[in-house]
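step 4 of 6: structure.
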Amino acid sequence: MAPIIQTDGLAKDYHLGPHTVHALRAVSVDITPGDFVAVMGPSGSGKSTFMNLLGCLDRPTAGRYVLDGEDVAGLSRDALARIRSRKIGFVFQQFNLLARTSAVENVGLPLLYSGVSVRERHARARARLAAVGLAEREDHHPSQLSGGQQQRVAIARALVNDPAMVLADEPTGNLDTRTSIEILALLQRLNRAGLTIVLVTHEPDIAAYASRVLLFRDGRLRSDERTAAPEDAAAALQALPEEALA
Amino acid sequence: MTILQSIRIAVRSLRVNMMRSMLTMLGIIIGVGAVITMVSVGAGAQARVAEQIQSLGSNLIIVLSGSSTSGGSRLGQGTQQRITMDDAFAIAREVEAVQVAAPSSRGSAQVVYGNLNWATGVQGVTPDYLEARDWPLVDGRSLTPEDLDGATKVLLLGQTTAVNLFGDSDPIGQIIRVKNVPFTVVGLLARKGQNSWGQDQDDIILIPLTTAKQKVLGASRSNPRAVGSISIKIRPDEDMVEAESQIRSLLRQRHRLQPLEDDDFFLRNLSEMLQTQEESSKVMTYLLAAIASVSLLVGGIGIMNIMLVSVTERTREIGLRMAVGARGRDILAQFLVEAVTLSLIGGLIGIALGLGGSRAISYFAEWRTVVAPQSIAVAFFFAAAIGIFFGFYPARKASRLDPIEALRYE
């Protein structure tokens, strides 16, 4: 199958005064549709830089990056914004929902910038909310939702424009164990339905749920391993001790 | 993203910080309100001057008798009756720019009707006088050349005199006594109001000049044809200054004045004086508007200040919006629309405040105020312009944020 993400010698340098920091050096990797990739590495390993480049939030210093058949490495800021709007869904550690704004409007936010009519925006946002199991919370504001529910709203928002991939940056970093596994179960379910997911984490426990792990160190891709039998979050949830349910 | 959606987002984010939005708007409200109120005060003063010009008669030049010298003391204007009705006729005949030249003599007299009496001004005039002064009748007839030739005992009644003698009843055809001479009221003059120095121009009766000389005011023995003044109306489109100098040289010639001798008459171009006054009240309007605009400017700076705070506070929101596909110009539009919405709502409230303010000033200070529709339009336009001008910098700052940095902002 043709890769949905293809990087070739991707590199990013930062200039701090007279010093040049090589945040990322010549990373070449292919990700095929339906992959569930965990990006791991200690802080300073380059995984955040890699993630920003994959998410079209930043432009590489060198190298090629083809996303869903489109070479995006040399695009302008505005063109990158269009790519983000059409092909990428973001999930953040901090959820980043708009306060004092209902769940359904938060989910519809990306469509505001892709020229979708108000009515269709609402219809699609509602459908995505239902898909993450929050149909009856449409009108709740983020402050009225639990952390796990907020993250599910954020996942629904990432899905609303039918992206080529979802980039999740430490999506469970602010959640307790049980809620983390619930979120992972949701991501696994979406992945089995064909969604490509790139998950950035520094916790091996979390990475164990992915089918492929990319390990970064000192700006280089150190290892790229497929996990034969990734953990099943739904099963892990069943196995959790009863008292954790409380 | 459509403009309508931008406005909805803007209104929502303004409502979130209701108190802050209100305080920010207050600057614009006060600014716009002050501009409208001040301009209405200035425009009111201008309207008053324009009215005075109207009441005086347009394109009017008045010739007054000059001063006489008696034993080395100059006795002041009008003490020497050197100008005559013949001067008036000569001016009308020989100066082309002149439409009419009406000689008149003024005095005062006690007038009596039934058991009422009233001291009023008496002016002996020719039939041309009303035309020269742009003074219409509301009832009855005007004076005729026959009245002048026959020195008939008829009079035209000013509004104030009419009210004092007749109250509400019809004065036409009634007989009133002026210095014990019975006169028939043949016409009622329209109200002319105060002149520019506050004198009531309606407290008057007008009688034929000949009658005045023979029966009421008397004539000087040395110069029986002398008059107090000549009211000259210059044709529209003629140059007032040029006409004035022609009249002057004609009079000097008729009075046989030597080149170095002083004029024995005064020429007053009253409309010109009032036009100067109009100019100065216009300048006052501009000055008031300029001072009030300063507060509008301060209001604009307030908007910029708050928008900058807002951009900083909402850095993460901006980052998120960019991450999900907002381009720089979408963010720019969002914040610009927000600033303009603030200034426009403030502008509307300010217009209401300005209308109320000018009402209050005309009510309490009893000044005339005029709110022109243009000044409302200009104020509204300026409010919008201030929103754009002062909102642009914060909005551009927001639009240029780096999404990565913005998302990481705590």
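step 5 of 6: annotate
 - The longest helix of chain A spans residues 177-192.
 - The mean pLDDT of chain A is 91.
step 6 of 6: archive
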